[in-house]
Amino acid sequence: MRLATRTGLASFAAATIAVLAIGTAVRVQFATVLVDRVDQQLESRAATAPILAAVALRLSQSELQAAVEGARVRTAGGLVEIGQLPDEPLPPVSQPGFSTATADGERWRLLTIRVDDVPEVGDRALVQLVAPLGEVEASSQELRRRAVVLGLLAAIAAGLAGYLFGSIATRPLSRLRRNAAELDPADPSTWHLDHDYGASEVDEVAAAFDENLGRLGEETRRREAALDAARAFAAGATHELRTPLQGALTNLDIAASPAADREMRIESIEQARTQMQRMGSSLAAVRALADAEFADPAWFGPVRLSDVVEAVVADEGRRFPDALIEVLDTDREVPVRAWRDGVQLAVGNLVRNALLHGVPPQGGPTRVVVTVDGATVSVDDGGPGIPPDARERVVQRFERNTGAVGGSGLGLAIAREVALAHGGDLTIATSPLGGARIVLSLG
Fold first, then answer.
1. Cβ-contact 383, 365 below 8 angstroms
2. pTM of the predicted model as reported, rounded to 2 decimal places
3. Dist. CA 407–CA 413, nearest whole Å
4. Domain check: are 15 and 141 in the same one?
5. Torsion angles phi and psi, residue 234, rounded to 5
6. C-alpha distance across the termini of the chain, in Å
7. How many domains does the chain have?
8. Collapsed DSSP state (helix, strand, coil) of residue 421
9. Which sign does the torsion angle of CA 144, 150, 152, 158 carry?
10. Residues 22 and 98 occupy one common structural domain
């Protein structure tokens, strides 16, 4: 049910209750006023009570008694009734004062007065003046009927007014509904709502909804981009793994050939083993890249980059004992919000690449300098470097620098995806050491 309809019905119900309450109160008050008026008339007639007590018997035997207003006189000699009275008997005349009785299907108002020393000294009589309340009740019923009719019309008018004003009041919601209906489910770029609808409550709802739509749209774009990348990645991975797989199968066929001697078999098996290890490394890199592309915000927490860098350097130092690895930390005690495992993987790839490909052209030990500055990690080496025209290409999947050998071609791609997951990026420049400088920025 529309909000305007609800408002109209609520207004109708409220108006009906109010009119019924007011009508009932007015009708009761009106009936009370009419009864009070009858009581005043009876009190004005009370002045005739002694006369009625004196002449009641003779008046009841007169032809004029039918034209006299109703009265009953109780004396020591009995009850005398005169004037306009109901056919059904009224209650016995007893105590002085006002009372109400029902006879002939209508109500009657009674005023009983005590009269002494009439017609003779020492006589006592009770004179009861009687007045019908039929006109009072008829007027009350007419008022009730009119109140019901007018109340119903007022309630209908209130309901229509409530619907009209409800429609006006809910225009901001209608605009919000139309705005939301215009969103294209297939195009996240259209997932945006206005923030000004003319009502603060609706504006707040729209702002909260728009914020959630923005996050949902960004996540949807990320997912779509990741799916596109996954398709391209699957094609590239298939191509990349086909060569070592085919080579391993060929070497295994050679080793299984009856014509191969023992030395040839050993060599073929070793080559197949190397190629299988290469495929295993590539598959592990594929998994790491997938994790980086679909990094979950729940994986992020406070991380000291200096701790991560020192762990990586210690690990790589054991693999390359002859290399010189130096760590420069300018902000050791300040943690950053990051994905620890992803950052460790990215920094490990950068340091390992520098150790593998940063061998000085003039010879000598390989030197690598790792610098931590806030949310940035820089890795410098003294090798041949990466030409400017190849820097954009080498961060793509399965791409290697010219002349580079070995590896899966995914190390820099993984590091770049980790940087993007943190809202940062990976850049390549020339190092002061003469080789390559790789800068990992985490936002």
1. no
2. 0.46
3. 12
4. yes
5. -60, -40
6. 49
7. 3
8. helix
9. negative
10. yes
Domain end (from 294, 325, 352): 294
Residue 174 domain-assigned (yes or no): no
Structure tokens at 404: 């580079």
Q: Are 148 and 194 found together in one domain? A: no
Q: Are residues 69 and 17 part of one domain? A: yes
Tokens of 169: 């009041």
Clarify whether residues 245 and 360 are in a common domain. Answer: no
Last residue of a domain, one of 274, 294, 314: 294
CB-based contacts of 180, cutoff 8 Å, min separation 6: 193, 209
190 with 168: CB under 8 angstroms?
Answer: no
Would you write out the chain's pLDDT as a tens digit for each of its 443 residues? 565 676 667 777 777 777 777 767 766 776 787 788 888 988 998 888 888 888 887 877 777 777 778 899 988 888 888 888 888 999 999 889 999 999 988 889 999 999 998 878 888 899 999 998 888 778 777 777 877 787 788 778 877 887 777 677 777 777 777 777 777 777 777 777 777 777 777 778 878 878 888 788 777 777 777 677 666 656 655 655 666 677 788 888 888 888 878 888 888 888 888 778 767 766 666 666 666 666 677 788 999 888 899 989 998 888 888 899 999 876 666 788 888 888 888 898 899 889 988 888 888 889 999 999 888 999 999 998 889 888 888 888 767 665 444 555 677 888 888 888 888 999 999 999 989 999 999 87
What's the CATH code of the domain at 433?
3.30.565.10
My answer on whether 274 and 342 are in the same domain is: no
Sheet with strand 376-381: strands edge to edge: 324-329, 367-373, 376-381, 436-441, 425-430
Token duo for residue 267: 């060599």
Strand ordering across the sheet containing 78-82: 78-82, 71-75, 124-132, 106-116, 97-103
CA pair distance 405, 386, nearest whole angstrom: 14
396 CB-contact burial (10 Å; exposed 0-12 / middle 13-18 / buried 19+):
middle
Residue-number span of the structural domain to which 137 is assigned: 3-164
Integer Cα distance of 217 and 208 in angstroms: 14
* Residues 299 and 425 placed together within one structural domain of the fold: yes
190 and 135 within one domain: no
